[in-house]
Hints:
The chain has helices at 2-11, 38-42, 48-61, 64-74, 76-81, 97-107, 128-186, 191-220, 228-252, 260-295, 319-348, and strands spanning 16-25, 108-112, 119-125, 301-306. It is of the alpha+beta class and 349 residues long. The chain folds into three domains: 11-159 and 297-316, EIF_2_alpha (Alpha-Beta Plaits, 2-Layer Sandwich), CATH 3.30.70; 173-294; 318-349. Strands 2-3-1-4 form a four-stranded antiparallel sheet. The two termini are 34 Å apart.
Amino acid sequence: MALAIVYFALFALDRYSSNTDIVVRQPGSSASAGAVTGLAMLVGGSNPTSREETLFLKAYVTSADMLDVLEKDLDWSAHYKEQVSDPLFWLAEDSPREDVLAFFQRVVTATFDDTNGLLKVAVQAYEPAFAKKTLDLIVATSQAFVNELSRQMAREQLRFARGELALARQTYEQKRAVLVAFQRKSNVLDIESTAIARATLINEIEAHLVNSRAELTALLSTLAPRSPQVRQRQNMIVSLEKELAIEQTRLTSTQADGAINVLASEYRELVIDAGIAEEAYKLSVAAVENARIESTKQLRALLVIVKPNLPDEASYPDRLYNLIALFLGLLMLYGIFRFLVATIEDHRD
């Protein structure tokens, strides 16, 4: 306790803390936009897509990359290496990079609040202006990080969409080439139309055949079977029957040697495949266009809910609180130690 009093009275330096609250949001994606407005919509934590990116930002704020930016623009570690009186917050001149990063993560903290999705960032420094300047640079660098993250996501989506478009176009061209080759091989542009026309022709032949048979029956009732009119009608009926058999064979043959029904079935399958490939190609074109438009927009935005402040008084160390907490802790340790000693002595007796 005496050592703690000496430390806080003579060695501990005042540290000023600059604080800010930030959050990553996707414009227009708030799930509760119809229910809340203004600041409540921004901090309501209702956008699940921003939580992951805010956690990415939390890791970036306390990373070595952020430390490199601060060292380059502010010579950040020099501010802490200048003091030598506080042994608990002392950074040696020749400290290795790992020690500087560990010290950086002690004085720069980022805390994610699950209740509202805010990222609370605090910077401790020996001068209020330096603490605020450091935090301002962290916020500006974080904005650039969020923008680059958004652009990277957009580029990946656009690259994927273009790859799918190239694949869909290749598939469509292949299906269309197969369909054209089939049409060229069968010497028919539209097998289905041909099949319909042939079925119509068969119906017409059947109608003529029925009429001819009826006329033959009427002629036989008045003329001799060997009369020229009867023989002419009989010859016509035979010709119609032969033509009908030929057309029916060509339409419904089970052989795959040019039968219309077989060709129509194959043609229908090829048309369906080509149609599916064409629709996939159209969707891929639309996806590329949407990805291109999205890539030009700001997909993510860093919102500063509470701006970095310029502290008026030191926040650390809280000497009275730390001394009282240390005193109570030492009393508890002393009590536990005395209890153990008394227990051992009782067992000896």
